[in-house]
Structure formats: C-alpha cells, structure tokens
UniProtKB/TrEMBL annotation:
Coiled-coil intervals: 50-84
GO biological process: bacterial-type flagellum assembly
Region of interest: Disordered: 130-170
Record keywords, A-Z: Coiled coil
Sequence ranges of Basic and acidic residues compositional bias: 130-140, 159-170
Pfam family, one: FlgN
Source species, domain of life: Bacteria
Source organism of the structure: Acetohalobium arabaticum (strain ATCC 49924 / DSM 5501 / Z-7288)
Protein name: FlgN family protein
Length: 170
C-alpha cells in the first residue's frame, strides 16, 4: 500500500513540475516575441522602444526565476524519493523511468529547451546588429566632428569667444 502512496506522491510532484515548466514555456514564448520585436526596433533605431522591450524581458525572467525556485523544490523531493542526483542527469533519468507524467514532462522540457535556444540565437544576432549600429553612429559622429574642424579651419573662427574678447580689449 505504501508503494502506491509513494507513486501517487511522485505522480503529483511530476505534474507540478510539468505545470511549472509549461508556465515557463509560456513566458519563453512571450520572450521570443519580444526578442523578434527587438530585432525590428534595432533596425529602426528606436532605442527607447528597445529599452522597453528589454525591461519587459527582464520582468519575464524574474517570473521564470521564481518558477525555478519551485522547480528546484520539486526536484529535491523527487530526488529524495527516487534516489536521483540533481544535476545534468536528473531529467534524463527521471524521464526514462516508467512513471505517469514523465512523457509529457519530457516533451515540455524539449519545447522549453528549443525556445531557449531560439531566443539565445536571436539575442546574439540582435547584439551583433546593435554593435554594428553603434560603430555606424560613432563613425557618423567622427565625420561630423571632422567636418566641424575643417569648417573652423577654413573660416578662421575659434570656438572660444573669451579669448577674442580679451584680445580686443588690449
């Protein structure tokens, strides 16, 4: 009878674990949308919008972090019941056990992993594009500054009116 009770307990823990990962999956889907939007605002030089998108992604990450704390608690309970090590082998070992809910958990974990990869790849592209844009802006500023220097040289005017004032009063 105790084994049945333990299995029910494990089954409930696996359900809770799966539910948390499904909730994470929804947050990651939203992050993917935001990351795609980031790509567009970077192209359009809409830096204020970019800051807003990054802020929204941070809020979602805080929610994911809260879920991760709950997930760790479930992992510890499952680990104690099934004698599994928490770490890289935890989920493969758990999902290979013939327990109710492990197939669904495995599929949800695969989906979370895929979304995280997509977001990571897009973030790298966005970061590289932002660096390109930054270099372009720096070059444009250098060109403007160089043009101002050339104009000053041809016109013979200096930026400082104080020195001119003092020289005229002598």
């Amino acid at each position: 009878m105790k084994d049945n009770n333990d299995n029910l307990s494990i089954e409930n823990l696996i359900k809770k674990l799966t539910n948390n990962y499904e909730e994470e999956l929804n947050y990651y889907k939203e992050m993917l949308k935001l990351t795609n939007q980031q790509q567009q605002v970077i192209e359009d030089d809409e830096w204020q919008s970019l800051n807003q998108l990054v802020s929204r992604k941070r809020e979602l990450m805080k929610k994911v972090d809260e879920l991760e704390k709950q997930i760790l608690s479930y992992q510890e309970k499952i680990s104690a019941e099934l004698n599994l090590q928490i770490g890289d082998t935890f989920y493969p070992e758990l999902c290979n056990k013939d327990l109710p809910g492990t197939k669904k958990l495995k599929q949800v974990l695969i989906n979370v992993y895929r979304l995280m990869q997509q977001i990571g790849e897009l973030d790298k592209v966005n970061q590289a594009r932002m660096e390109e844009k930054k270099k372009q802006k720096q070059q444009e500023l250098n060109d403007v500054n160089q043009g101002l220097s050339v104009n000053r040289a041809y016109s013979g005017k200096s930026d400082s009116s104080e020195g001119k004032f003092i020289d005229q009063n002598k």
